[in-house]
Amino acid sequence: MKPALTRDAATGWVRPPMSDQVDTGDDRRLLARAQDGEIAAFEALVEAHQDKVYGLALRMTRSEADAAEITQDTFLSAYQHLKDFRGEAAFGSWVHRIAANHALMRLRHRRVAQAAESELQGPEFTERGTLADYPLSDWGQNAEEKALDAELGVAIQQATDRLPEGYREVFLLKDVDGLSYEQISEATGDSIPAIKSRLHRARLALREAIEQFYQPG
Amino acid sequence: MYTCKDSINLLLEYLDGEMTPEEARHLKEHFAGCRPCEEFLSTYRATSGMCKRALAQRIPQEVSAKLTEFLRSKIKPAS
Ligand SMILES: [Zn+2]
Q1: pTM of the predicted protein model
Q2: B33 CA distance to ligand 1 centroid (A)?
Q3: pLDDT the model gives residue A114
Q4: Helix, strand, coil: what percent of chain B each, to 5?
Q5: How close B77 comes to chain A (CA, Å)?
Q6: Does the CB of B24 have a partner CB in chain A at under 8 Å?
Q7: Which of A72, A130, A157 shows the shortest C-beta gap to B70?
Q8: If you measure from the C-alpha of residue A144 to the centroid of ligand 1, how many angstroms do you get, rounded to a whole number?
Q9: What's the sign of the alpha-carbon dihedral A12, A17, A19, A25?
Q10: Fold of the A6-110 domain
């Protein structure tokens, strides 16, 4: 069942519910009309993808002002290159890549206090390579069906913020925003093996943070 | 025989389906005989989805309204 549409008070437009399953068939039809110069069709595409583009930009830059500007720049450059877009990829993944590039550009121009790699948490092993401690509760079971505890949500946000920059970026782009290794490699200039290694360590650190939430101390 | 450490080092490749059948078999053997690693795999696998939900964002309405205004000012009808 589809959730009800809500009317956006500010724009008077009907906001579709945020969803992972953007209807790519709809997107394709809208895109064809937008490429023919129909501005309303382009605006409908913006409407459908603005939450995800803004979310990507906000997570990456952690600045609401930057996120708002990146969202504007992303959709403007999408519009300007609309004719070049051939539609092999989904419109959504195309604008995600544009947004990622804009966000990374801003981050590269900004000096951020780097967390040291040594601060990355992960599982501990005995000398023989055996797990030293292990989950007392298997919180991974049916995790998708359970509501996310609000306190756990905050713990995850804080743990993500503590990741060293290169690890945080890769984790967000791959696991949260769904870019491919190839797309991330293209955007960051890093090799795919390096990206995978950082992604793995970021996941281990975040897994550890969730683990600590379930069994503190 | 893989140790826990070996197995956990390979989780990303395993979940991406990018292992040789040989490696995958060794790994499955380890998981089958190691409860801690089996649960580790389950929690590792769940981590990304939980983070994705914790980090979800919606564009604020005023930012959305400004975006519309911005794009309309930049995009002129073709005619
Ligand atoms: Zn094990």
Answers
A1: 0.86
A2: 8
A3: 65
A4: 75, 0, 25
A5: 7
A6: no
A7: A72
A8: 24
A9: negative
A10: Rna Polymerase Sigma Factor; Chain: A (1.10.1740)
